[in-house]
């Protein structure tokens, strides 16, 4: 008798699988206002771990956290022409406050470059105040017509970094450092994510930037998702807000700036990059719960044992949860932990006690794979598990990378690119053969240039560097 | 020659002193939209430490973090009559989104009871789902007519807890636990704050609650400030949103609820409770920087030494910053660290190197007090400082408590209470002698009942318990 699957199988309908997963793993619910979301405790626990890991890496660059207001005078946004053009269609506008109509409407921040620059102009006086490196953890609102939980929501949580530097080179290098070493290292080392580091085309650039660096990941269905971006803003906002510093030679110079953001979208990316038909697979280094110790039945000896094992593993530095809710059937709980993607299950029943073993089930390797589900001696757990967790962390990255490599093809023309990306998958096209015209033709088929890379896969210093390759795909 | 004071002296003009301090210690700036604020890195660093300490205590109760949307349909607020009456005058209303007028206006959350209950109604099915204990760290907006940085701002940051329980007693006990053991213990043990734990009168209760518990602190000028509140919501929101659970006996019962919040106002309270004419005094257990090691002059030996000391103290578990910015005059830097209230300065100059000593300056004890500024052997620092920091932590609490005790008087009538509180200071009045009528008469003199306590200083179980004493004061 075939079991009814808990989730719509990925191969049947990937977007439906995603929606089922977000719901059944209790990651998030739709909010009452169109496009907003409620992040449930299990989803928020993932975000908290992401925040902690990212925050430490951001602070290592010398940046400090601060907080800028949610509400921005509408007039601020209009000071930078491209910026307002980019964001105007997505704004939420507050027209009434304290029971009265406001003299000037204020917008709920869609991003904070404008209000940040208003204050940078006051705080930056001399070259001694540079570089000024600020980050904030905040919510932003961008009205969303086609919302999808975590991926595109009208409100999302993020960190946004804003920096000011004395020279173009310093700003450029800082944006690159965030791109590769804050976002890149974090996503690869903690989230076990595979991605391509590249440069956006002029069409895909952040509104107001002179260069946008991106990390593009391949999801389970072969589509692309932008995982994070780091922008060189040049002097665009500095000019609009007159952000200047007194240089050593006594002249007053405009600063060079960067901004960079990563969002709760990473939770959706995690699901779509590592998830399978049984649910999430959470990388062990990220997982709020790395190991769950389950009591199969509610007899006293078993309950005592699961708590004993829980204590021992906790003492070994593992993030453990004990599941002793034996009034809920074991099968239902096991399926739930699978859905939630906890890396390792340690299952303990009366028979295990007698044999001195427990059943070790590896969510990432898979219970049907050799070694994916096998009895191990209780006493071996504390030494065995750290190795298992690191192996499975590595496996996730290997699998994601292998998928991208197998589903990326080299093509020469727009038509070939459209064909190669139609069923999911990425295509590499010489940028010289594509250009803005080719980019426009791809767009007719809902295919975009995700980023440009050099021939040997590095991040190009300019859009028109000879040999640049465009990575094109359908995307979320 | 008398020095021009860095801050307006407290005795001359306390509100002005506060404003100077917030500005010069670089805690916050006014935002462009009336009543909003920019929290600068030093101020935000205090908030981050508060968050970390509070978050751990909140999680110890079994509560989990989640995130609910910023934008709430206006109709949600109207479902609980007292709630909407209380918050309607303070709402910020979004009428346009994505370039269009919205069909139903949405409000920027002033608090989240309504939207939380909408989801609790879905998540709570049976008694097995209770208690449901949720917390969120978020921003809220309450339009403010008389803003003051940190104390009353149109947007502020806070944590708001929301819980649902099976019985009245469980909810009551949980609200009390948060009041005394999460807020109370944290504020006393980490913030070195002195306060009275009490119960609000019906007039001062949270809009929609059946009981509000409060912590009231005395500021440097004798006025009161509400430091945090914990509410019993009874079944008011459960009724409005039909939040029910299936009891063991098969009946469907309304849940009993609590909510509780503490905000960035604590930063203002910290300044006004512990600050002096030289600036902030940050409790060592809170301080992001507990010890600053200053190079007096920029010669190589001194610079090497401050970094050596910094490393040694860091290794001893102390939060240290090294100040080697010797292109800025030493005096200016010393004043700045005083303003910022860093508990201990270790000053290192060429003469100190020769003698093997450094100058230890204790911000909290005070540089003019015996032992407040004296040379100590370099080698003794790592063992001496932990003791110094704990002593100074205790001293702040002792000083705050002594001030409250000396400035609180027992009175019998409304007139005496008005007189006793006119110049700052609190009065204790028998609640039976005051009542709602007396409360209204006090209000004519801008004096409010901050809370009710029992004769022996405990938190009363009811407003009308015989012997209840009203603590009355002017307040922020």
UniProtKB/TrEMBL annotation, chains A, B:
<keyword id="KW-0963">Cytoplasm</keyword>
<comment type="subunit">
    <text>Homodimer.</text>
</comment>
<protein>
    <recommendedName>
        <fullName>Proline--tRNA ligase</fullName>
        <ecNumber>6.1.1.15</ecNumber>
    </recommendedName>
</protein>
<dbReference type="InterPro" id="IPR006195">
    <property type="entry name" value="aa-tRNA-synth_II"/>
</dbReference>
<dbReference type="Pfam" id="PF00587">
    <property type="entry name" value="tRNA-synt_2b"/>
</dbReference>
<keyword id="KW-0067">ATP-binding</keyword>
<dbReference type="InterPro" id="IPR016061">
    <property type="entry name" value="Pro-tRNA_ligase_II_C"/>
</dbReference>
<dbReference type="GO" id="GO:0006433">
    <property type="term" value="P:prolyl-tRNA aminoacylation"/>
</dbReference>
<dbReference type="GO" id="GO:0017101">
    <property type="term" value="C:aminoacyl-tRNA synthetase multienzyme complex"/>
</dbReference>
<dbReference type="InterPro" id="IPR004499">
    <property type="entry name" value="Pro-tRNA-ligase_IIa_arc-type"/>
</dbReference>
<dbReference type="InterPro" id="IPR002316">
    <property type="entry name" value="Pro-tRNA-ligase_IIa"/>
</dbReference>
<dbReference type="InterPro" id="IPR033721">
    <property type="entry name" value="ProRS_core_arch_euk"/>
</dbReference>
<keyword id="KW-0648">Protein biosynthesis</keyword>
<dbReference type="InterPro" id="IPR045864">
    <property type="entry name" value="aa-tRNA-synth_II/BPL/LPL"/>
</dbReference>
<dbReference type="GO" id="GO:0005524">
    <property type="term" value="F:ATP binding"/>
</dbReference>
<dbReference type="Pfam" id="PF03129">
    <property type="entry name" value="HGTP_anticodon"/>
</dbReference>
<dbReference type="InterPro" id="IPR004154">
    <property type="entry name" value="Anticodon-bd"/>
</dbReference>
<dbReference type="InterPro" id="IPR036621">
    <property type="entry name" value="Anticodon-bd_dom_sf"/>
</dbReference>
<keyword id="KW-0436">Ligase</keyword>
<comment type="function">
    <text>Catalyzes the attachment of proline to tRNA(Pro) in a two-step reaction: proline is first activated by ATP to form Pro-AMP and then transferred to the acceptor end of tRNA(Pro).</text>
</comment>
<dbReference type="InterPro" id="IPR002314">
    <property type="entry name" value="aa-tRNA-synt_IIb"/>
</dbReference>
<keyword id="KW-0547">Nucleotide-binding</keyword>
<comment type="similarity">
    <text>Belongs to the class-II aminoacyl-tRNA synthetase family. ProS type 3 subfamily.</text>
</comment>
<feature type="domain" description="Aminoacyl-transfer RNA synthetases class-II family profile">
    <location>
        <begin position="34"/>
        <end position="283"/>
    </location>
</feature>
<keyword id="KW-0030">Aminoacyl-tRNA synthetase</keyword>
<dbReference type="GO" id="GO:0005737">
    <property type="term" value="C:cytoplasm"/>
</dbReference>
<dbReference type="GO" id="GO:0004827">
    <property type="term" value="F:proline-tRNA ligase activity"/>
</dbReference>
């Amino acid at each position: 008798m075939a079991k009814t699957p808990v989730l719509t199988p990925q191969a049947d309908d990937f977007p439906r699988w995603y929606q089922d997963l977000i719901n059944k793993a209790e990651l998030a619910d739709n909010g009452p206002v169109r496009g907003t979301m409620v992040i449930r405790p299990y989803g928020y626990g993932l975000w908290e771990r992401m925040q902690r890991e990212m925050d430490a890496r951001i602070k290592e660059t010398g940046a400090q956290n601060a907080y800028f207001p949610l509400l921005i005078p509408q007039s601020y946004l209009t000071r930078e022409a491209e910026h307002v053009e980019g964001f105007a269609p997505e704004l939420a506008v507050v027209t009434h406050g304290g029971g009265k109509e406001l003299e000037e409407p204020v917008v709920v921040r869609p991003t904070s470059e404008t209000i940040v620059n208003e204050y940078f102009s006051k705080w930056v006086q001399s070259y001694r105040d540079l570089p000024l490196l600020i980050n904030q953890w905040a919510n932003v609102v961008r009205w969303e017509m086609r919302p999808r939980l975590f991926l595109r929501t009208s409100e999302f949580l993020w960190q946004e970094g804003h920096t000011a530097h004395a020279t173009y080179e310093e700003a450029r290098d800082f944006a690159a450092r965030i791109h590769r070493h804050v976002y890149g290292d974090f996503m690869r080392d903690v989230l076990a994510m595979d991605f391509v580091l590249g440069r956006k085309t002029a069409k895909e650039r952040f509104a107001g930037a002179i260069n946008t660096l991106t990390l593009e990941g391949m999801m389970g269905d072969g589509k692309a998702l932008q995982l994070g971006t780091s922008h060189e803003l040049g002097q665009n906002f500095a000019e609009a807000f007159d952000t200047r510093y007194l240089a050593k030679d006594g002249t007053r110079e405009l600063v060079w700036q960067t901004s960079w953001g990563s969002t709760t979208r990473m939770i959706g990316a995690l699901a779509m990059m590592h998830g399978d038909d049984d649910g999430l697979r959470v990388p062990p280094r990220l997982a709020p719960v790395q190991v769950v110790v389950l009591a199969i039945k509610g007899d006293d000896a078993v309950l005592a044992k699961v708590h004993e094992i829980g204590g021992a593993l906790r003492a070994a530095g593992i993030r453990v949860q004990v599941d002793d809710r034996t009034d809920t059937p074991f099968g239902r709980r096991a399926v739930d932990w699978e859905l939630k993607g906890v890396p390792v299950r340690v299952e303990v029943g009366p028979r295990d006690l007698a044999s001195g073993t427990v059943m070790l089930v590896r969510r990432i390797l898979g219970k049907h794979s050799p070694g994916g589900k096998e009895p191990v001696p209780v006493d071996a757990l504390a030494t065995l598990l750290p190795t298992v967790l690191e192996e499975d962390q590595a496996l996730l990255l290997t699998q994601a990378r292998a998928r991208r490599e197998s589903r990326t093809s080299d093509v020469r023309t727009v038509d070939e690119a459209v064909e190669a990306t139609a069923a999911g998958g990425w295509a590499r096209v010489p940028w010289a053969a594509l250009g803005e015209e080719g980019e426009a033709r791809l767009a007719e088929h809902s295919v975009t240039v995700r980023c440009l890379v050099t021939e040997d896969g590095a991040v190009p210093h300019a859009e028109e560097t000879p040999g640049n390759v465009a990575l094109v795909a359908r995307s979320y």
